[in-house]
Amino acid sequence: MPSPPPIQWYPGHIAKAERQLKEQLKRVDVVLEILDARIPLASHHPQIDSWIGSKPKILVLNRMDMIPEDTRKAWQEWYISQKQQPLFTDAKQGKGIKAIKSAAQKTGAKMNQRRRDRGMRPRPVRAVVIGFPNVGKSALINRLVGRKAVVSERRAGVTRKLQWVRISDEIELLDAPGIIPWKLENQEDAVKLAICEDIGQASYDNQLVAAAAVDLLVKLDFGNILNSRYHLDPHEMTGEAYIHEMAERLYKGDKERVARQILYDFRTGNMGAIPLEIPPLY
Ligand SMILES: Nc1nc2c(ncn2[C@@H]2O[C@H](COP(=O)(O)OP(=O)(O)OP(=O)(O)O)[C@@H](O)[C@H]2O)c(=O)[nH]1
Ligand SMILES: [Mg+2]
Asked: In ligand 1, which atom is closest to the CA atom of 37?
């Protein structure tokens, strides 16, 4: 069987956003890197750290409601073992927001102390949210501001332009479009990004990604969730066969409909809180 075409997605608006973001970074005091808690490793942009250099970074694992509490704890311990301090948020319900605000204020206080030492007037701390598309950057900003200041929707590539938002006299935030590496080197990661809808729909085939999702869920020991939800046991078959079989049983052979349903049920949390990555051994 020929291998499926690799998932690649680098639309013009992202290339442009990346250029503008690098330009704006010079004016920014602190970077909030937003990861998808379901796939914190696959949703980490490999170049971010080199772009931000020595600026302080606040690491945020958003969508914490979409993973179980023990997985959240395991990630917390893993990041601490890597000398990083993650903050967890649910930007939809507004959980974990205070900690982000106070972390940003803390960097602001330090920055303003340095300004005062040099005889300059204090100014609001400037923070930027950086991350893959659809991880919840705009939703997080809205939560920090306490109102709907920027557009946030259930698909990748909603924010198209960089936009400054003032949250208070102390903090200014820059909302940025999702960015991705121009080449997705690791196709296993690319598939996870597609399953979680953290890359645009134009880049992948729903049926291939849904079949990969079934295979991955079985591998991660979540096969029973599929079995009880769709009354079809995925354990003794490939993801591809699963889609085929489910289509025959339910939708007169319409595999596209099955693929969309499985992806929809995963993405909206209908299947429950399911992590697609667990911390590596350390
Ligand atoms: N369940 C859950 N949903 C969230 C969370 N954060 C954001 N969302 C939802 O995810 C979708 C995407 O959120 P956005 O804020 O538009 O994401 P973004 O990172 O700004 O996306 P782009 O602008 O496309 O890069 C929206 O439907 C949000 O309501 C969260 O913590 N939990
Ligand atoms: Mg956005």
From this structure: 31
Q: Which atom of ligand 1 is nearest to the CA of 156?
A: 24
Sign of CA dihedral 119, 122, 126, 127: positive
Q: Are strands 163-166 and 171-175 parallel, antiparallel or unpaired?
A: antiparallel
Alpha-carbon distances of 209 from 45, 114, 147, 176, rounded to whole Å: 21, 50, 35, 27
41-44 own/partner pairs: CB under 8 Å, 24+ apart: 41/189, 41/277, 41/280, 42/186, 42/188, 42/189, 42/192, 42/193, 42/276, 42/277, 43/131, 43/132, 43/135, 43/193, 43/196, 43/198
Q: Which residue has the tokens 């109102």?
A: 147
Assign 282 a pLDDT band (cuts: 50, 70, 90). Answer: confident
Establish whether residue 91 lines the binding site of ligand 1, counting it when its CB lies within 6 angstroms of any ligand atom.
Answer: yes
* CA 178 to ligand 2 center in whole angstroms: 7
Q: Name the residue among 84, 29, 27 with its Cα closest to residue 61.
A: 84
Q: Encode pLDDT of 86-112 as tens digits.
A: 999 999 999 999 999 999 999 999 999
Q: Is the pLDDT of residue 151 over 60?
A: yes
Best of 10, 92, 132 to mutate for ligand 1, by most ligand atoms within 8 A of CB? 92
Which pair of structure tokens corresponds to residue 62?
Answer: 């958003």
| Under 8 Å between Cβ of 172 and 165 | yes
Residue 268 has pLDDT above 90, yes or no: yes
